[in-house]
Amino acid sequence: MVEKIWYLKRCDLFERLSTDRLRAIEARCSARKVARGNPIYLPADEARGVLLLASGRVKICSVTAEGRQAILAFIEPGELFGELAILDQLQRDEYAEAAEASQIILIPAAEIQKLMAELPDVSLGVTKLFGLRRMRIERRLKYLLFRSNRERLIHLLIELVEQYGYLVADGVALRIKLSHQDLANIIGSTRETVTVVLGDLQAEGFLRLGRRKITLSNVSSLAKSVQVKPPRIEGVTPGA
Description:
Blueprint: H1 2-10, H2 19-26, E1 30-34, E2 39-41, E3 49-55, E4 58-63, E5 69-75, E6 80-81, E7 95-98, E8 102-108, H3 109-118, H4 120-144, H5 149-164, E9 165-168, E10 171-174, H6 180-187, H7 191-203, E11 207-210, E12 213-216, H8 219-225
Antiparallel strand pairs: 1-8, 2-7, 3-6, 3-8, 4-5, 4-7, 9-10, 10-12, 11-12
Helix pairs in contact: 1-2, 3-4, 5-6, 6-7
């Protein structure tokens, strides 16, 4: 019981709730562990509630008409996903898979709806969640349209820096470990193409490759090459 309350408190949406209110939510939650690579839910599964990622990492995916996986987003600990259940959606329309061994907490949609009706802060938080997810997907789609594989991959790397970048002695490293296939699934390309483009960027001095690890040598120059603003990294001013 204490563990679930601790995980609920880590979620921005619930951090201001009283202990009594959290215990009431906790009593209606269920938790489970999911091994890496296993599905959490599939398209057309019943949308019984919203999910909170307690630990691990989850990827939200869809399947293209050609049967290929397209990665829409990554979910980090403390984040909610499957949020369309709040809108009384009866079935899932994408699938979620554990990118790492994960612990998931299912919160019934009725509990979130009740909080939204009673607490303006929660209602605003849910609205922001929908807005942020939509903005990220729309931005991704904009970058995918009418752009080369190189431009799409650079845009993705800049986006990953914003979410996962941290300063190291020789540049900016990414906390998230992605395979070339993962990167291809995000930008709608092939593993072979991504491998070639990454090799070109490494030869040009923009980045260095390790085993499922990317370190960007000059984020500002890379961002300027596709005419986007350099991202902030760990509180450092862009370009610093």
